[in-house]
Amino acid sequence: MRGNKKELADSKDKQLENYRAHDEGKKMTTNQGLRVSEDEFSLKAGERGPTLMEDFHFREKMTHFDHERIPERVVHARGYAAHGEFELYESMKKYTKAKFLQEPGSKTPVFVRFSTVVGSRGSGELARDVRGFATKFYTEEGNYDLVGNNIPVFFIQDAVKFPDLIHAVKPEPHNEIPQAATAHDTFWDFVANNQESAHMIMWAMSDRAIPRSFRMMEGFGVHTFRFINEDGEAFFVKFHWKPTLGVHSVVWDEAQKLNGKNPDFHRQDLYESIECGDYPEYELGVQIISEKDEFVFDFDILDPTKIWPEEDVPVKIIGKMTLNRNVDNVFAETEQVAFHPGNVVPGIDFTNDPLLQGRLFSYTDTQLIRLGGPNFHELPINRPVCPFHNNQRDGYGRQTINVGRVSYHKNSLANNTPSLSSVDEGGYTHYQEKIDGRKVVARSDSFKDHFSHAVLFWNSMSEPEKEHIIEAFSFELGMCKEKNVRQQVVDMFSNVDLELAQRVAKNVGVQQPVINRGPKVKKSSPALSQENTVKKPDTRKIAVLVGERFNKNVPVIMEALKNIGTHPVTVGEKQGFIKGENGDELEVAQTFLTGDSVLFDSIYVVGGEDTSHQFFESAAYFINEAFIHYKPIGASYQGRELIEYLNLPSNAGIVMGDAPSEFLEEFIKAISEHRFWNRKTY
Q: For all residues of the chain together, what is the average pLDDT?
């Protein structure tokens, strides 16, 4: 039997050998065997012109990539969503004829899906990663999709390289490790050899990549789009979502623990916030540049690896989005929603950003395989609120029952209906941009600066943020097994900041670079630093560590914390009711086993006269962990004794007091601050 099994195994191995592709050292070809001469740039009408459908290599490469995973999304698989509405503050009639941007006070229903990019549907939500921020506006003129991220730039400049990026960042194919992480060789090898990614990497290594909440992160349209007004006048525009709670993050150690304690932390936070009426709010801002100013900047405004600094092009706040309803069914809504940057309305158009041009092809192609055919637009979550009529018929999943025998244009049997709409009737027309150029596979020279905005980002960071970036680089590269990859990346980022590169080099055991060959950029942009964000206590979760015979003022203080919009949660040795010194009862919601300091924004320690030694030990661990994560800590009554016993090495962000009014004033200030980076931890 053993011999027969070996023969079968050998036979199977020989069979499989016929299908194994050994690509190393070979020339690149298409799937038809045609040798490829260029794999960096898509075919365009002129260096800054639009991508051409004639580019069969790009279309084959992107089509194959779009169909690589079934049934979950290739990227953005791990997501959560909510319904809401967008209310316009001021008319944008001067810039665009889009109807939902005309009348101040008008409201448009929206559906928003937040997501991580790299991980599978089962991965943890606190991975260091870009976060998707996709918004579907159900307007009277049709669906408009603003499909963006929580980072305003991207890794690459041309969509033809998107499959390469995702292949590099996904788990390595020989062992499918690591899941939902960029800390591995293939990703950093891609970065080192595709240096247009430098700016994006600075964002990805910053605190922006580990947000505290979907409610506390910005959203960006990433690309440069066009507004078109009634007179046919065009303006370049970028879109921003600004959270009213400010932009806040967790620290890396906290993120890693959260993935273990609660891998659903972000979706649970969003769900519970909406359920309890803490509706997430984001103000919509636009940056606008007139066509005549397209070339006045020292960067190409169409380059998706560049920002428009807010100090140079101010963000104009034009409305507010409120998320006020959770989904009824995650699969039917969150998983089946189909976004597409090509879903636009009259008054919004595209530019020749080569990454955007490729996305206009990719998204429909992706939905066809993921949602089983061409009728995904008929799923309830994707249907527009306005009627739709055309001659498209049949296919998988068709729900519309078309009446009549005519399904073609032009016709006489149905009086040539459905008929076309003129511009005055709301018919969509593309902006008539003048194109003059040869068909080339190339990229404009204006896209060749890969480091100036990475330097701008570094210059804009506070000292704690810079330390976090250095730590992030050190962790990520430290996980790479190939020393050569680590060295290449360190050398690359010496073009951003020499000290950054040298410190990382020292941490990951490679040679320190000695020369900064990058651009000499002195400018900074305060808007890029989270140090300058909105800071207030609203919706913060506070762990109240409470024991038997707690002080009579504890319920009063908890009620006061609730009244300012925070959420105090009692944590004790066991769930159930405990009694205070005057007979009052409190219900313990979480135990030290089910609750953890990483699940809360701050800690309030009160203890009780009859707390056990086990309570003391558990609370001490809780407090120490919150302390090293720089969180505000409050203490009253018996809780003060515990703080004093722990002899914490700094009192930054530690508020102690027994008088409720004085204590509350100082503690609320501390909660609003979010973190105390000047705290000296152990």
A: 92
With 0-12 / 13-18 / 19 or more C-beta atoms within 10 angstroms meaning exposed / middle / buried, residue 297 is: middle
Q: Which residue has the tokens 């959420």?
A: 567
Tokens of 614: 């086990």
* Same domain, residue pair 237 and 310: yes
In DSSP terms, which residues pair with 142 in a beta bridge?
Answer: 139
List, as one string, the DSSP characters of 401-420. ---SS--SSS-STTTT-SPP
Q: What contacts 463, CB < 8 A, 6 or more positions away? A: 677
2-18 confidence digits (pLDDT tens): 455 456 545 545 655 66
Q: Does residue 468 have an active-site annotation?
A: no
From the candidates 76, 248, 340, 468, give the one annotated as an active-site residue. Answer: 76
Chain centroid to Cα 58, Å, comes to 26
Give residue 576's pLDDT: 94
Give the Cα separation of 98 and 155 in Å (integer): 30
Last residue of a domain, one of 531, 565, 598: 531
Task: Name beta bridge partners: 138.
Answer: 143
8 part of a folded domain: no
The answer to whether 149 is a known catalytic residue is yes
pLDDT at 128: 98
Residue at a domain's end among 485, 515, 531: 531
- Domain for residue 54, yes or no? yes
CA distance linking residue 2 with residue 7, whole number of Å: 9
* Assigned domain for 503 exists: yes
Could you list the residue range(s) of the whole structural domain that residue 164 is in?
43-200+211-378
Query: Do 525 and 666 share a domain, yes or no?
Result: no
Do 287 and 302 form a contact (C-beta atoms < 8 A)?
A: no
- pLDDT > 80? residue 642: yes
Specify the CATH number for the domain of residue 646. 3.40.50.880
Kindly name the residue from 57, 143, 149, 266 that is annotated as catalytic.
149
| Residue 421 placed within a domain | no
Of 44, 57, 62, residue with least CA distance to 361: 62
Give 1's pLDDT tier (boundaries 50, 70, 90). Answer: very low
Average pLDDT value for residue range 80-88: 96
CB neighbour class for 330 (10 Å; exposed up to 12, middle 13-18, buried from 19): middle
How many domains is the chain partitioned into structurally? 3
